[in-house]
Write a structure and sequence with these properties.
The chain has about 140 residues and is mostly helical. The chain has one helix at about 1-140. The termini are far apart.
């Protein structure tokens, strides 16, 4: 009888052990399933972040290309403006030189005009002197 009781207790313990194993396996499977779902969600979030980062990187590359093109355009405009500035300075220098030359010419012409005016006045003075002398001669030698 003790043997039979031991056998029954052993059988009950084995059934209990199997039930515990089954329960543990179910709990472990459920726990692992929940962990798998959690990790899958995290992986999906990481994939989404990766896609967003890749899109941001492509946008930055595109923006970089656009900025490089703008910089190149601005450098070309700057070079053109510098060329125009050089041309304007040359033109200004020419205009200043030409203006000085014209001022000198005007000054010389004013001197010549003044000299001619003096000559004209001297000629008129001589004419009037000789005209006065002729008139006085004709008055002095008139019919008597």
């Amino acid at each position: 009888m003790a043997y039979q009781q031991s056998q029954e207790q052993l059988k009950e313990i084995q059934e209990l052990l199997e039930a515990l194993k089954s329960e543990l396996a179910t709990d472990a499977t459920q726990s692992l399933q929940e962990e798998l779902e959690s990790l899958t969600e995290q992986l999906a979030e990481i994939e989404l972040q990766k896609e967003n980062l890749n899109r941001d990187i492509e946008t930055m590359k595109s923006d970089k290309d656009v900025l490089q093109q703008k910089v190149q355009n601005l450098q070309e405009q700057l070079a053109e403006l510098r060329l125009q500035q050089t041309e304007c300075k040359s033109q200004q220098s020419y205009e200043q030189t030409d203006a000085r030359r014209l001022e000198e010419t005007i000054s010389q012409l004013e001197v010549e005009e003044h000299q001619l005016q003096l000559l004209i006045e001297q000629g008129e003075a001589q004419s009037s002197d000789s005209g006065c002398g002729a008139a006085s001669q004709s008055i002095g030698t008139g019919p008597s």
